[in-house]
Each structure stands twice: as structure tokens, then as C-alpha cells.
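WARN  no MSA supplied for this record, continuing single-sequence
INFO  ligand: adenosine-5'-diphosphate
INFO  echoing inputs
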Amino acid sequence: MFRALLLAPPGAGKGTQGERLAERHGVPHLATGDLLREHVSQGTELGRAAKEHMDQGGLVPDQLVISMVTEALGGRDPVENFLLDGFPRTLNQAESAYEWGRNKNRVFDAVIMLDVPEDELVRRLVERGREKGRSDDTEDVIRNRLRVYEENTAPLVEFYEQRDILLRIDGTGSVDDVTERIESGLSPLIAD
Ligand code: ADP
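INFO  complex generated
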């Protein structure tokens, strides 16, 4: 069983670590930001509704994201194990995910929280904006995303701490070091 999620501010390395962990454990990497960007580029109804929120660094409304994720996990092609990245991001999403998981027997085993100081986050994101040209990686939008994280997503740490599945990982240093820290923290929580 491997049902884990990555909970971390923008720039902490969710995408990079998410891909590695998913590959190592042979599970799909479901990144809500990637799924939403795909909808935007394909011009779907969801993409049109999501775009302005994403451009401003705000959150896409809960109901839209919740149905997108529950469809990806339990729709026509259900997955039993997964690495979720970027969801849940609000208490409302976390509560819905928990209810849904209990009904479908898909409760999360581990929540990986990556800790990185704020000035390092901003530095990484500004650099990514320069290299990859992601439209929300500009300084103003980055500040807004960090504020939105503090306000809406940081409270989830306590939510998962109370359920005893939170793994707090130092997200600084090399990519390999962070992966190893995550793996050693995960092993007691995940029965492969
Ligand atoms: P980052 O963590 O660097 O902000 P993501 O790719 O995870 O990057 O997310 C990009 C954007 O997609 C967010 O700023 C937000 O607008 C939207 N988004 C992604 N996941 C969610 C979610 N669970 N709830 C609401 N909005 C989301």
C-alpha cells in the first residue's frame, strides 16, 4: 500500500520529489497543478474556470478541485495506490478527501511535509520562472502564492499531525538528500 501526499509551500520541491517517489514505488504521481495546467492548455470548461485563479496565485475553488481529484483517483480508471502532490490545499479539501477515502477505502497512509525557509522558496521560484517561464513564477504572484499557502494550507499540518501520519522533512540540501530523508521517514508508515 502506498497512499501518500506531499504538503509543502510553492518552491519546496513537491514536483521533483513527487516524481521520484512515485517512480520508486511504482505508483501514479497525481499533481493537481499539472492536471489543472493541462486543462487550461486544452481549454476545457474546468481550465477556463481555473485559469484566472492560477494566474493570480489564488486557489481554484474547492468543488472543482475535489471533483477533479476524486475522478482521477476513483473514476473510470480507479487507482489503489498513489502519490498526490498539491492536494488537499484547504481544510475543506482535506475533510472531503478524508470522507471520500473512508468510503472508498483509500485513506492516506502518510503526509510528507517539506520544510524550506521562505527566502529560499522565493529564490528557487524566481529562478524557475526565469528558466521555465511558468506564468505564475513572477515575484508578485509568488508572494501571493506563499501568503495563500500560509493562510489556507499551513493549517493542514495540524489536521494530519492529529491523525499521526505527518512526516516533517527538512527540504533543504541536495535533491538526493531530501529523497533519502523522505524514504527513511516513510518506511515505518508505509507497508509496501
Ligand atoms: P505551486 O505549489 O508551486 O504553487 P502547483 O503546480 O502545485 O504549484 O499549483 C499551481 C496552481 O494551481 C496553484 O497556485 C493554484 O492556483 C492551483 N492549484 C493546484 N492545486 C490546487 C488545489 N488543491 N486547490 C486549489 N488550487 C490548486
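The pocket of adenosine-5'-diphosphate is lined by residues 10, 14, 32-33, 36, 53-54, 57-60, 65, 86-89, 93, 136, 145 (CB under 6 Å).
INFO  checksum written, moving to next record
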